[in-house]
Amino acid sequence: MSKHAVTPFLRRRSTLAALAGGVAVAAGAGVMFSSAFAAKAAPKVVLPQANATFDYQIGGAYTPPAGVKALSRDRGAQPVRGLYNVCYVNAFQTQPDAMDWWQKKNPDLLLRDSSGEPVNDEAWGEALLDTSTAAKRTRLANIVGGWVDGCAKSGFQAVEPDNLDSYERSGGRLTKAHNAAFAKLLATRAHAAGLAIGQKNTTDLLGQRKSIGFDFAVAEECGRYDECADYATAYGNRVFVIEYTARDFSKACSSVGAKLSVVQRDLDVRPAGRSGYVFRTC
Question: Where is the signal peptide (predicted)?
Answer without folding.
Answer: none
